[in-house]
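ok trying again, last paste got cut off:
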Amino acid sequence: MKINLEDLNLEQEKYIIVGVSAGPDSMALLHYLINNLNTNIVCAHINHNVRKESEIEEEYLKEYCKENKIIFERMKIEKYSNNNFEAEARSKRYEFYASLLKKYNCKYLFLAHHGDDLIETVLMKIARGSNLEGYAGIKKISKFRNKYFIVRPFLEYTKKDLIEYLHKNNIKYYIDKSNNDTTYTRNRYRKNILPLLKNEDINIHKKFLKYSETLLEYDNYIKNTTKSIVNNFFKNNILDIQEFNKIDDFMKKNSIYYILNNLYNNIPNIVTEKHVQNLQNIINSNVNNGCLNMPKGLVIVKEYNKIIFNFKNLSSDDYKIELKSENIINEHIIEYIDSCENDGNDVCRLNSKEIALPLYLRNKKSGDFLEVLGLNGKKKVKDIFIEKKIPIRKRESYPLLVDNNDNILWIPNLKKSKFNKKKEEKYDIILKYYEREEEINE
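nice, full thing came through this time. structure:
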């Protein structure tokens, strides 16, 4: 078994990290690197704490590292917090790897994924749906957190190859019995589909590797092309729909993948084809306002001809504050004034004898309505916001003037209630709305 590591210039590295479970794949990798590298090796072991054999495996690996004079680092997962064991274990595992890369000031993490793993991953991505890069499966070398590299040197070999290598070198390893548990998706592919493919071609993993490398070449070209055009319609986390619609459908889809993956810092397994399709549906919809909730708190909002991407909840915290002489809520300013010649929606005149004091400013609640001045009827606040083209992301925090009985008296700068007075009528309260100017940082 021969692995080409010359391109990595590892002789310049003081340390490398190797993820080792004590199973056959990682033990083969650890043994190979010990015998073929002159740099310091850090063995990174995670005790997932779900099998009684875990303690035995950890102790074996600790002694193996001691005998071979390499550094042993371990982490034990004491508890899990959700129902997705695989996802949580993976997250904790990579957090541990990242901490070691930082601790030893090194940039290479070696993992023992092999050709069989590649086949399984490609098939799972096809079944789940992905983009071109996702369909390629596992990369030989991939970026990790934008400053580290994950190296997978065994993609040209199968598990059978690795076990033969271990037997030839008399290396002990442990088998994780949970790998036979078909509750896990990967195990079903491994048990039911992989043998069929190998019956067709014993070297099928090499065909999948070629397939993967070809897709990655195309993906790299498409990404470079996409990157060169995205700035024409996507700036400051806002997508201009008119400019976006000038490109062809193929580049539209790739642009959406590119934007979403960049927003998620290219963390794998977050953006799926379904997410991309949902966003395309909103863009193509005739509805002026829409909202799409994405994983990890990303909220995508359509506002007429714009798509806004934000990692904040659309709804601000509920508030209700007593009206003071001057009140500032986000970009809105409402203040008491002595007189005003204007009689537009930015001015509110009230007779204190017809309302319940004190007055308050609060955000919108579900079911809110306004008894509109001159209409002799009620209108939902939600419908007024739509008519006035208030962006959906601003509606939940927009201030409403209410009295002590929670009657809505005024939607500042938008609509007056039946309680509002004209200039020639009797009133003793005048309120004025201003929009706060945007602060400019020099």
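cool. The CA atoms of residues 5 and 153 lie 8 Å apart. The longest helix spans residues 204-230.
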